[in-house]
Amino acid sequence: MKQRCQWVGNDPLYLKYHDEEWGVPVHDDRKLFEMLILEGAQAGLNWITILRKRENYKKAFDNFDPIKVAKYNSKKVDQLLGDEGIIRNRLKTESAIKNAKCFIEIQKEFGSFDKFIWQFVKGKTIKNKFNSLKELPAKTIESEAMCKELKKRGLNFVGPTICYAFMQAVGMVNDHTVNCFRYKAVSK
């Protein structure tokens, strides 16, 4: 039996996410935007809740196209708030739209969101060597710097803890525990 990080559990969705996606470096802007939206939606909730609604989010938010999301109006917000397939929270929904606009501005300034966001880890994955779940931090100096810069640029739902979860998800840090079968694969 494969040794995995302690947080995974037995849910097939969690297993697939952990085994194939979590901690793998992402450099595609649309995928980075998706994770930014999903991590913001997750605030105060369990990640499995978001994973179960991920396909619904994909449909509701035009396959995470920041250009389309940035153009959403109040009618679209009302439509999203009526969608039982996503988290129906006005602040999170309006934040996703605002964040899309800011995301596009960052792309214009840096050439890509990828180029901007990876600067917080100097373009390379931080390879941690944690033995257990309780060693993982909720935030770091890097996630605090990211949070500060994102907020300065107008983004919401990007606190230091959300930023750190984002960093873990998109492989900016490798927080697979050293006994996890994915640790070495993700470290390469």
Question: Could you characterize what this model shows?
Answer:
The chain is mainly α and 188 residues long. The protein has one domain: Orthogonal Bundle (Endonuclease III, domain 1), CATH 1.10.340.30. Helices cover 55% and strands 2% of the residues. The chain has helices at residues 12-20, 29-42, 47-60, 66-70, 74-81, 90-110, 113-117, 141-152, 160-169, 182-187, and strands at residues 126-127, 173-174.
Describe this structure in a few short sentences:
The chain has 188 residues and is mainly α.
Topology, element by element:
Layout: H1 12-20, H2 29-42, H3 47-60, H4 66-70, H5 74-81, H6 90-110, H7 113-117, E1 126-127, H8 141-152, H9 160-169, E2 173-174, H10 182-187
Parallel strand pairs: 1-2
What descriptive keywords fit this protein?
2 strands, mainly alpha, Endonuclease III, domain 1, two-stranded parallel ribbon, single chain, globular, 188 residues
Q: What is the topology, as strand order, of the major beta sheet?
A: 1-2
CATH topology: Endonuclease III, domain 1
How many structural domains can be distinguished in the coordinates?
A: 1
> Outline, from the CA principal axes?
globular
Largest sheet, in brief, is: 2 strands, parallel
Unreliable residue stretches: none
Measured between the Cα atoms of the first and last residue, the distance is 22 Å
SS elements, strand count: 2
Mean residue pLDDT: 96
Strand content: under 5%
Helix/strand-derived class?
A: mainly alpha
Number of helices: 10
What Rg, in angstroms, do the CA atoms define?
16 Å
Kindly provide the name of the CATH class: Mainly Alpha
CATH architecture: Orthogonal Bundle
- Series of secondary-structure elements, N-terminal to C-terminal: HHHHHHHEHHEH
Quick one: CATH superfamily? Hypothetical protein, domain 2
| Helical residues, percent | 55-70%
